[in-house]
Specification:
Blueprint lengths: L1 H14 L6 E7 L13 E6 L19 E2 L2 E2 L1 E2 L2 E2 L2
Antiparallel strand pairs: 1-2, 3-4, 5-6
Length: 81
Amino acid sequence: MRFMFFIYFIAAGCLLPLHGQQVLSVMSAANNQPVISPNSLATIYGANLAPGAASAQMDANGALPIAIGGTSVSIGRRVAC
């Protein structure tokens, strides 16, 4: 039991970002399941992800912005858009 807790504690410590953001889960925006399909929308649940509340509006072409309230998402060092 102690060994498992120690491994979990180290793994959790390695996954915490440097600036206090804490991602709790990433889910499909369509069905709230933990499987994300390519070219789909995702919902990110967490704490301290942005400096405040913000919302997005589609532009004239129907595209959403790649940053909201100064916050953006990267996957493998590439901006998720």
